[in-house]
Specification:
Elements (H helix, E strand, L loop, with lengths): L4 H6 L7 E6 L2 E5 L5 E9 L2 E10 L4 H16 L4 H17 L2 H14 L4 H14 L13 H13 L3 H20 L29 H13 L4 H13 L3 H5 L6 E2 L4 E4 L10 E4 L2 H10 L22 H10 L11 H12 L4 H8 L6 H30 L3
Antiparallel strand pairs: 1-2, 2-3, 3-4, 5-6, 6-7
Helix pairs in contact: 4-5, 4-7, 5-7, 6-7, 8-15, 9-11, 13-14, 14-15
Length: about 400
Amino acid sequence: MPLSHFQISKAVPKEKPYKLTDGFGLHLLIQPGGSKLWRFRYRFAGKENMLALGSYPHTSLGDARLRRDQARKLLESGIDPSTQRKEEKAADELSNRNTFGIVAAEILANKEAEDAASTTMSKNRWLLENLAAPLADRPIAEITSQEILILLKRIEASGRRETARRLRGLIGSVFRYAIVTLRAKSDPTLAIHGALLAPKVKHRAAILDENELGGFMRAINAYDGWPTVRAALKFTALTFARPGEVRGALRKEFDFENAVWRISAERTKMRRPHEVPLSRQAIATVKEIWSLSDHNELVFASIRSPQKPLSENAMNSALRRMGFTGEEMTAHGFRASASTILNQRGYSPDVIEAALGHQDQDEIRRSYNRAKYWPQRVSLMTDWADMLDSMVTPM
């Protein structure tokens, strides 16, 4: 006879365990300690098995019968309920070990092993560990497009459109890695492409008029602040290298005899070695402050510590003291100034791109172009330095 709630509630413990049968293999085991446990007895492949279905009253009589019926349906399909449960438990444990945070940490470790730039690493860590923190403890295979979109829209609403787009790309890379390592089946960021607002593009300020650039160079020459800052600004103008590469320049990178500045791969944005031909003006600029770094590695060291490079803020602050606003010129603007003027003067765009360090992704083509364009780059840098001189003292 099937059990009733009244029978179950009145069942009291005895010295030994005993059971109350409900039917179709379901019974309630009453333990001497007072616990009441649901059990389903069944046979599979000729062997008798027992499946735990929960404890009373947390699992009600109705719930216990439902679980028994589900187990019987599995048996009818030729599936052992106990084996099914073990597999589901293993899947749950695997899912809990494969959270978004764990996979993201592996992505970051891989990027670090591939010698990603320190600035890139710090940005990626901030995006994945801080901004994506709401996803960290979620099993990666369970995260939905909606969850990600809510997170990104919250960032976008704060005015950080570019940050939201970058985070979406990084989250996508985490999912693609999870797919190839068999921890996810799809990338939910694909469904939300186009859902974010386009970032407001703010171009770095640069002086593109030759007459204005001449006045700007005169202001640098007349700057009476820290000599290293003046030299860094002038050297950046002469080489149109990235400010970070200039600020971190090491004495060992300079070959004055062959007029070459060799920047190692770990210091370049492209993570590839970059060689810069040095004009006589560039060499003279470096030699003006060379003695200031006699006992240190950095050529353009910080005013506060010779072991630390100049900050980009130090260079931009000098520009402000010279009277140039952030809308007129920045330390990074020298690159746009040189690129624009040299292109206007008819120099080869390929040579200019090589000089800027915008290297071809194809390794063979890149090596070929480096050898092919080197003589033209040497000539280009000499011409550019002479142009700056002529702008400073126009005929």
